[in-house]
Design brief:
Length: about 260
């Protein structure tokens, strides 16, 4: 049990080499800066069969539950990351210049004040068999996953996953600001935003979908399913079974091959 600790970076654990956390709970920890629960500052952090819950990163902070920086690698499997809070971005997971791989896990009911209620990524992330659900970012964008690319190396691959019932002003499920993002056999449903209920795809961003369903998402103003800003690229690959249907008030904006 990693419980009720207070630190500057990494309220519960700050890894600077190689750390493995298995069959454990990190709960109620607080970081004054980033990564309320566990922070990977350098090296390799492995989390398995664990619960990361009710941790907080206060102030100008990234990563309420788990955070990684400095080209560190974090591997998470068979775990739950729930009810964590960040004062800035990445309520559940927040990465900056790092690599994260999450498999067979649940990321839910996390909150970030600005963006990336579930996950904020400036780096490379892979999600496989992940449920990203019921996360919230009331300030700017991305209730589920926000991926930025200011450093030029960001990318996301999401496979066999569900992104559901997340809420934010821009990009209820996903907001892609400038990175290549690939979704395979993934369901994006029930997300809500002012614009881009399912996905908000910015200019210079590339979104590629294979066998993916974007259904029953809601936007207050435009882009219930996908809002693609001029200059962005969306590849639906409908021959693989991708569908964008039953979104409100429309399915797509600026997406070739998608009916409004």
């Amino acid at each position: 049990m990693i419980k009720r600790n207070i630190g500057f970076n990494g309220g519960g654990v700050a890894n600077r080499g190689t750390t493995t956390v298995k069959h454990s709970t990190a709960s109620g920890n607080t970081a004054r800066e980033s990564a309320g629960g566990l922070q990977n500052m350098t090296g390799l952090l492995t989390i398995g069969y664990s619960t990361i819950t009710k941790n907080t990163a206060t102030g100008f902070a990234i990563g309420g539950g788990v955070g990684s920086i400095n080209n560190a690698t974090t591997r998470i499997s068979h775990s739950s990351i729930t009810h964590n809070h960040s004062g800035l971005a990445g309520g559940g997971i927040g990465d900056f210049a790092a690599i994260s791989m999450v498999t067979d896990s649940v990321i839910s009911h996390n909150t970030a004040e600005n963006s990336g209620g579930g996950i904020f990524e400036e780096g490379q992330i892979t999600l496989r068999r992940v449920k990203l659900t019921d996360n919230n970012a009331p300030g700017d964008g991305a209730g589920g996953l926000e991926i930025q690319n200011f450093l030029g190396d960001s990318a996301a691959t999401i496979e066999d996953s569900e992104i559901t019932n997340n809420r934010a002003p821009r990009g209820g499920g996903i907001r892609n600001l400038a990175a290549p993002v690939v979704l395979r056999n993934t369901r994006i449903a029930g997300n809500q935003a002012d614009t881009g209920g399912g996905v908000f795809n910015n200019d210079n961003a590339i979104l590629t979908l294979f066998a993916t369903k974007i259904v029953k998402n809601t936007a207050v103003t435009d882009g219930g399913g996908i809002l693609n800003i001029a200059g962005g690229t969306v590849n639906l690959n409908t021959a693989t079974g991708t569908v964008v249907i039953k979104n409100r008030p429309n399915n797509c904006v600026n997406v070739p091959g998608c009916s409004g």
